[in-house]
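Support request, please re-run this one:
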Amino acid sequence: MVDVREMTEADVEAVSAARVHGWQAAYAGLVPQPYLDGMTVEDDARRRRAWMSDPRRQGTDLVADAGAGPVGWVSAGPCRGATPESRTAEVYALYVRPDLIGQGVGSALLDAAHTYAKARGFDSVALWVLSGNTRARRFYEKAGYAADGGEQSDPYDGVVLTELRYTRGL
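Re-run finished. Output below.
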């Protein structure tokens, strides 16, 4: 059982560890290994602290706390690139400690992001997932998301990877 709550400054290191180790586990074989090997918890934590103090920051960051600190993290808010009157939210990121995947932590975080979005008047949610990340795609499809045909490309160490946009109603 996890408690989902707002992220605090004290959670930064644990969230960065979940994100970096989550990337390294989920994207092995998809993202170039030198890129994954170059990721550090310290660099991620430094960027996360700066981002948390940015007055332009929108949305929320929530953590799943299993009693001994965060074991997962979700970031959500208004859909990037949408018009101001858009009623679509976006899940910017969701990561769970790799050793806890499949134990309901991700589902609890996603449910909390949906609750956050609905309470702010959004009626749908979008997110982006690497096309080759079949585990994540199955997770989101099980949660009611479907690929809507949107695609974007992101370069990682000279390799261009395709992300698919998934959406669902609230």
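Residues 3 and 65 are 5 Å apart (CA to CA). The helical segments are 12-26, 33-37, 41-52, 105-119, 134-142.
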